[in-house]
């Protein structure tokens, strides 16, 4: 099969391309290079530079490469930016998806994997008191970014039902690490790179709040290695390729293991040798205390479980850190 990977020049998308090829699949990358990097695309994989809002280019790409399945990751993904620019986020993440689905259904392509996010859950009560967030936990997104991902899931499901697609929405938890140094995350927007940046500048890492109702007072998250995440996409793609029309899966992708900000900073100190003690800053608005996935459904549906731990995430991210 030939898979079209939108956003395949991005941090996560490039890992999906790599994992697909390791599984023996053909891949074509479609990316507008707004945040993607052309060098992340292997030289023997074609890169089509285009927007998901460009229907004509999508039509041509699907036809020319005889695409038989789509994995859609192209999107804007900064929570704070989405609060400032909601119209842009709805346009790129929701309208871009609508145009892509129109092209996909017109071309008769059936398997469709959608990149969603734990941001759809917002501040889930289910995460407190040691509980896990299941796919049945109510979705109450707290940002325009999270709203566009939830609306995207609805759009995928509705279009999929109407056109007989086989679809999956994958709700990523906190992604970290790299499969190789050249594929490392280049943005400094999440905990691990933000701590690297402070430490390499000789500054103390920042902890946003240590008075949460968690064991050490800092926020707890479910960190997942990007190489594990990429392998989950391959498992989903394979499942959808032979699934009945109308199949629709919604799956958390996490490890089911909670790690606090302080625990993460400790591992970073051990892996980098940079041990400047953190400073405690005020809480960041909108941060939930604890968000940890139940990863049972994906294990049952796809036979996938994460293999790599937090130490491997930190070590591999550090190996690709430019600073
Ligand atoms: C993790 C924890 C911070 C930096 C976001 C999006 C989510 C998804 C992943 C896109 C929090 C704390 C951070 C620092 C800190 N995005 N922190 N000091 O907020 O869980 O999730 O990214 O798909 O939708 O919301 O991730 O890495 O920003 O923060 O104390 O210097 O680390 O407060 O508790 P978050 P994060």
TrEMBL record:
<comment type="similarity">
    <text>Belongs to the NAD(P)-dependent epimerase/dehydratase family.</text>
</comment>
<feature type="domain" description="NAD-dependent epimerase/dehydratase">
    <location>
        <begin position="3"/>
        <end position="254"/>
    </location>
</feature>
<dbReference type="Pfam" id="PF01370">
    <property type="entry name" value="Epimerase"/>
</dbReference>
<protein>
    <recommendedName>
        <fullName>UDP-glucose 4-epimerase</fullName>
        <ecNumber>5.1.3.2</ecNumber>
    </recommendedName>
</protein>
<dbReference type="InterPro" id="IPR005886">
    <property type="entry name" value="UDP_G4E"/>
</dbReference>
<keyword id="KW-0520">NAD</keyword>
<dbReference type="InterPro" id="IPR036291">
    <property type="entry name" value="NAD(P)-bd_dom_sf"/>
</dbReference>
<keyword id="KW-0119">Carbohydrate metabolism</keyword>
<comment type="pathway">
    <text>Carbohydrate metabolism; galactose metabolism.</text>
</comment>
<dbReference type="GO" id="GO:0003978">
    <property type="term" value="F:UDP-glucose 4-epimerase activity"/>
</dbReference>
<keyword id="KW-0413">Isomerase</keyword>
<dbReference type="InterPro" id="IPR001509">
    <property type="entry name" value="Epimerase_deHydtase"/>
</dbReference>
